[in-house]
Amino acid sequence: MLLSSHAAFAQARSPAFPIVADDGRPILNHRVKPDQATAVEKLPGAVILGNPKGDVTLAEFYDVNCPYCRRASNDVDSLLRQDRNLRLVLVPFPVLGLQSVLAGRVELAVRRLATPAQFYEFHRRLFAGRGTIDGERALEAAQALKFEREKLIEIANDDATTEIMKTHVRLGNALDLAATPSYVIGDVAILGHPGAESLKRVVASMRQCGKAVC
């Protein structure tokens, strides 16, 4: 989903690489600075999955209430299962309103308490349902995985959680991430979900020549 605050900027910028979606549409993308790409992996609320020593790192900035993120979740999961050398970095990026922010607080609480595998199970559970995901629905999903409700609420409401959320938004803005989901891979940010096959091609190109498109 394009974010209104950045949409005009995103549409005006020429793509850095000729990345094409599965349906043939050109996908907005632009280069990012090396230090910005490195900063993504160091975000305090990011979750690293897949092969921790993988040869390609794909970071996804997502909002749990973005329908495109829901669709992307299945494609990213399939890619993660197929590609044993992929390192996936999930970055909660709640930018679509208060309900997303409340759910995002619970996500960061789960991240604090869970292993990466447990967080991913929670993440997938959130996207498996329908309708708006707010704080209560996120809590219910976490409780179903045996996390203690009161502890989650305590962490979710903590000032440290607020600061983590601000850090994610600041970096997302610095990276000009004008859509959800957005991906950062190598020196490029990809705005919007290009589809399973397109994403697979980008990863393969990065592995082959170090660029999003060889």
Can you describe what's shown?
The two termini are 27 Å apart. The chain has 214 residues and is an alpha+beta fold. The protein has helices spanning 4-12, 34-41, 67-82, 98-113, 116-128, 135-144, 149-156, 159-174, 196-209, and strands at residues 29-31, 47-50, 56-62, 86-92, 182-185, 188-191. Helix content is 51%, strand content 14%. The chain has a single domain, classed as Glutaredoxin (3-Layer(aba) Sandwich). Helix 3 (67-82) links the parallel strand 3 (56-62) and strand 4.
Task: Give a short synopsis of this structure.
With 214 residues, this protein is α+β, with helices and mostly antiparallel strands.
Overview features:
single chain; 214 residues; alpha+beta; Glutaredoxin; 6-stranded mixed sheet; 14% strand; disordered N terminus
Oligomer: single chain
Q: Could you tell me the strand content as a percent range? A: 5-15%
Q: Helix/strand-derived class?
A: alpha+beta
Mean pLDDT figure: 93
Low-confidence stretches: 1-11
Summarize the amount of helix as a percent range: 40-55%
Q: SSE layout and pairings?
A:
Layout: H1 4-12, E1 29-31, H2 34-41, E2 47-50, E3 56-62, H3 67-82, E4 86-92, H4 98-113, H5 116-128, H6 135-144, H7 149-156, H8 159-174, E5 182-185, E6 188-191, H9 196-209
Parallel strand pairs: 3-4
Antiparallel strand pairs: 1-6, 2-4, 3-5, 5-6
